[in-house]
Amino acid sequence: MRPDRLAKTLAIELRDHNIRANAIAPGAVRGQRINNVLAGGAKAEGKGVEDKRASMFGIQSLKRFVDPKGIAFLCVFLASDAGKSISGQVIANDGADIPPSRARRLPGPRLTSLLHSPVPSGHCIS
C-alpha cells in the first residue's frame, strides 16, 4: 500500500481513539549506510566518492543528507500538542530531493527567475 493511503486510512480508522497517524518519508540519511551506497555507486560508475556525492546533491536543493536528529525532532513535533492538527499526512524530510527520473523533466521556468521579476501591485508571494 502507498504510504499516503496508509497514513490516511490509519488516521480515519484511529480517529475515534484520539490517535493521529502520519508517515515520515526521509531521504538519504547521513550515516554509514549512505556512505556504503556512495562507495558502491562510485565504484560501479568508475567515479570517486566525492564525485558521486556531488552528483546526488546536484538534484537536491539543500545539498546535504538528512540528519537523523532532524527525523527525531519531526517525530517529537508530530507527537506533541504543536502537531495535534496534523493527521493522515506523509511528511517528506528529504532535503528537497528530486528523483533522478523527474530531474530532467521539470516543466516551466525556474522559480529563481520568477523571484527576480517585479511583483504586480496588490499581489503577494509568500
What would your notes on this structure say?
With 126 residues, this protein is mainly α. It has a single domain, classed as NAD(P)-binding Rossmann-like Domain (Rossmann fold). The chain has six helices and two strands, in the order H-E-H-H-H-E-H-H. It has helices at residues 3-14, 32-45, 49-57, 68-79, 100-103, 111-115; strands at 23-26, 90-93. A two-stranded parallel sheet has the order 1-2. The radius of gyration is 19 Å and the shape is elongated. The two termini are 34 Å apart. The model is unreliable at 119-126 (pLDDT under 50).
Keywords summarizing the entry:
single chain, about 130 residues, mainly alpha, Rossmann fold, 6 helices, about 45% helix, elongated
The count of strands amounts to: 2
Structural class: mainly alpha
Q: Whole-Å distance between the termini? A: 34 Å
Quickly give the CATH architecture: 3-Layer(aba) Sandwich
- Summed up, the helix count is 6
Our Rg estimate from Cα atoms comes to 19 Å
Q: Short description, anyone?
A:
By secondary structure, the protein is mainly α.
Question: What is the secondary structure topology, with strand pairs?
Answer:
Layout: H1 3-14, E1 23-26, H2 32-45, H3 49-57, H4 68-79, E2 90-93, H5 100-103, H6 111-115
Parallel strand pairs: 1-2
Helix pairs in contact: 2-3
